[in-house]
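name: query_chain
kind: protein
chains: 1
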Amino acid sequence: MDSFREYKNLKPKRKKRIPIIRTLLGLFLLYGVYSSGAVQKAYQFIEEKNRHPQKELTYADFETEWREGCEFSHGSPFTMKKKFWGGCSWTLKSAADISMLPENSFVRYVANIPGSSYPQKVHWMSDTANFWKPKIIGVQSDSTVNWYFYWMMADSSYAWVRADGCRYPGVCPRNPLSGGAIPIFSNFDFGGREELLLKDLFIGIGEAPVFPILAAEIVSVEKDSLGYKIFLNHGGNLFSRVSGISLISPGIQAGAKIQADDVLGRLSPSDSSAFFLEVLRNGRFVRWDDFYRETHVAEANYVTRFRMDAGF
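structure:
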């Protein structure tokens, strides 16, 4: 009887069922991940990371107090009038001393421009909380100091500019006549002034000097009823033509090489006089104001105000 109760209480073992739906879902998900390329991308990422290990952080990767960073770079710290700004200077006796400067490509470039004379002093000005991000660089040789400013532009990006607001390094044209060209706006009425479609007009006082926009080689010099016409080759497929000058300077002739500070000639001796300028780039006319703004990313008076605000 007892054995019958034991037999009755003995329940048969159930067979384990395979979860077919969950298995199919898992396989479907695995296939989706594989077909999307995620596995290959993860593998490539790991391989790339192993092939190119992370760069070892250096002293300059951390924000460093100005005086500490200057002394670490073998410079001489100096205080500034502007609050929260500090300066650092180096005296370079030869080009070999450039290795003393911080590993900043711009400061090492301006300190070793071809034709640089030594000894020279290099001045570095930055926020006192972060020495490694200079805002002003000065290079002093003899009695000449060239200043460069780290300028924030309209799109919030930064560029190094000279005191005149021109991006540096790079081509930096100058105004051929003080005051600039007559502005040509989008709604300008060319009726009766069709020559301004492909020329810019400059108006100045009588006998004012006229300069080339850049260093150039003179291609030709001609004279017509309006005055002298000078065609200049600035290199890099950039040309300019100045016309309407009353008087040209000695030595202005075909084949001569001139600098941007050389006077091409002068306007006619009257209360108000004018000449025309054509800028040709890759064979196409470029409006002077547009060409000038490409390189002069800051107004010179704003740069001057920034410099004075810095205390010098």
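note: DSSP finds seven helices and 16 strands in the chain.
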